[in-house]
Task: structure prediction
Amino acid sequence: MSVAEVQPEVGVTYANKIEKREAAIDFARPAIELARQVRAFDPFPVASVRLGDEVLRLWRASAVERNVPAAPGTVLAADGAGVVIAAGEGALCVTELQRAGGRRLSAREFLAGCPLAIGLRAAPAPGTP
Result:
């Protein structure tokens, strides 16, 4: 059994409560940072973005290394492998997402009921800066 030790007060900082607006995805940032953001905000407050008229919650995503000739936030591909969206550097491949009021779905399941057009542009979710 280990003995409890008092932690030193030097270096202690206060972390503010995470707010929902911090979870808004800004596609001007590099894809690797966006993938980390999606992972960091699961399960709360969940990364979010507006695509067309829909606010989507992003549950699982990874960075894709590729030279992207499109503006950040542009949907480059949408198929069973994922929804690929251009970022400031590279692209973000979203493999699990959710519509407002819906349940978490794989990209394949999501696109079967809600197809996304190539060229659609993402915007910050409402209530975000």
User: Anything to note?
Assistant: The helical segments are 31-40, 107-113. DSSP finds two helices and seven strands in the chain. The first helix runs from residue 31 to 40. The chain has a mean pLDDT of 91.
